[in-house]
Please model this.
Amino acid sequence: MSDLFHKLLILRTAGIGPVKYKELIDKFETIEAVIDSLKCGDGVRESVLREMELAEKNGIHYICDDDERYPAKLKEIKNHPPVITVRGNLDALLKPAVSIVGTRHATVAGMEFTTALGRKFAEKGFAVASGMAMGTDSAAHRGALKSDGSAQTIAVVAGGADYIWPLENESLYWEIVNSGAVISEMPVGLVPVANNFVQRNRLIAGICEKLILGEADLNSGSMTTARFAIEYGREIFAIPSHPLDSRGKGPNSLIKKGLAKICTGLEDFFETENFESEKKKNYEKNEDENSLLDVLGTIPVSESVLAEIVKKSIAEIKSILVVLELQGLVKKVDGGYIRN
Model:
């Protein structure tokens, strides 16, 4: 059997993760000796064979940490995954990576800013890494995908590399597979549970050279990612936000404690002659979108009522709602629209 099969046989044995895997290799010195000590039954062997068949069927690659394509920064962290799975363009793993994370419930202005960051970093040759969640993550991926070229973005997922979550991001998932890469340390075909998301956040922090934290609550998964990044010695940036908005408490706290550099614009990373003109161009659009979001809540509001409240034509309201719906910020229900 192949070396990969033996590595997976160890990793797919109950109770064994990267930490235990390393302990076993250090103790027994060879993979074969570890296999002998575990006395893996037919059930585990058959499960690994099925997984490898599923991976081949779906065009998913296994990358071991002795492969030159294994992400260099990820390999640096203690107890990194010995094997990751990748679906998409393997070249994305060879690029320097910047991770951009934040809340699923980002403001329109926050998502615009994140999209601009993602696009600019991708244009400068970085792979933009995030967790493919709604809100900030999606904006970072979509921004990177707007740049020319390929291998612009990496989605680190909590389930198998073939498992699409959230379902609302199915189209984004396939865009990333076509132009970037989806990676995971979990078995192919695995449906994620809560603990898997912490492991996912660890990889997002480990794979990057620098991490940018957008809007995020204090107790959010994004803050967990930031704490991992601090532990790994990554360069941390945080985008400040209004102190009365819970989404500003995460980044503001890192800035206040001196754990993150303040990020106020693309000019913190690049020379951006056109950035001010781009901000002016988008300002009015952001204001219109934010005013609609301020009106919406859990009670459906019709397009005509929204038009009357914000003093816009129904045609303008429809146009703004389409954008907000695509961003996952509003939802159409019986009786009108609600905030998502």
Observations:
- Residues 216 and 247 are 4 Å apart (CA to CA).
